[in-house]
User: Fold this.
Amino acid sequence: MASTSKLPHKTSNRLLTLDALRGFIIITMALDHANKFIAHSDFGLEIWAGQFADYDGNGLAFLARLITHLSAPEFFFLIGVGMILFTLSRREKGWTEWQIARHFAVRGSLLIALQLLIENPAWDIGSSSAWTYWGVLYALGGSMILGITLLRLKPRFIIPISIMLIALTELSLPTQGTAFNPAQPEYLRLWLIPGFTPGMFVLYPIMPWLGVLGLGIAFGHWVKRNREQALQATLPIGIIALVAFAIIRLIDGFGNIRPIIGDDWIGFFNVVKYPPAITFLLLTLGINMILLRLFWQIESKLTRLLKTLAIFGRVPLFFYLLHLYLYSYMAHLLDLNTSIIGMYPYWLLGLVILFPLCLFYGNFKHNRPPNSLWRFL
Assistant:
């Protein structure tokens, strides 16, 4: 891999730990998509109703999927952290609330446009679909726009609002029906209920993910006020979250969205992601909190490793869009259809290809003016 010596020098306002964690979850996300494109792994969706993901005892396939579950919740959480840290720094520089809101409105709108115009064609390489996909960039963009309303609130208000959004998701889901019931109106799909309606397929509605972004905003306030205290607290917070996950999962009632399927360890950890169940968020955010503490703990000892991860983590959107096309074309042009084990070398090859591109773009973006659109990508 290329040297990390060309990292931007002006990094005092950034947290290497957060960038490294973002880089880690990005490469695990790439594993999931390489698995889909190259190994054609399709065990179903972890969705709130209808046919649920079934791994039929294939522990290797499930573990490859389970580790990638860390990605989406942490994306939203770290977006929230970044939003409030950006807001507080810009207020210190004299930005008005209108300027801050406009910045995030433009950025959120760009994410939604990229979902529809750039991301979606990557999924259709070598095939075609008759519906519009509303995925993670849509939810990130929509949550960012609506999250503007949380930026002026204090954490004591943000936290209960965020928890309410997450809890109300399960309480508001239809008690009967299927995720692929075409009768659901489009606005409900986009806001709350994942599934298929003629002409559109929604996996990431805004409501529950806005709650995760809100928790990130609250944590960002804490980081700004006392960085060391906040990072120290991530370990006990992560442990508490995992204990809560185990309890709620064992009770197997509210918080799971749907009951445990199967009686093995795969069934226990195979939780609903679309929309995210409380158990899903407790498990993934709990692990991510522990990873955040670990990365912070080793920052002074393994700085080069963290800087390498941060190369990816500082340009997450650039990486995201590029890696979809890379793995999709890799599979299509080479006519790949391999096992999960056989997929790993291609996943690693993709990371090797993406690393210098991300390093170049990170330096390029860093040298753009603060108001440049390049900084949004």
In short: The longest strand covers residues 132-134. The chain has two domains: 1-42+298-377, 50-60+75-271. The radius of gyration is 20 Å. Confidence is low (pLDDT under 50) at residues 1-13.
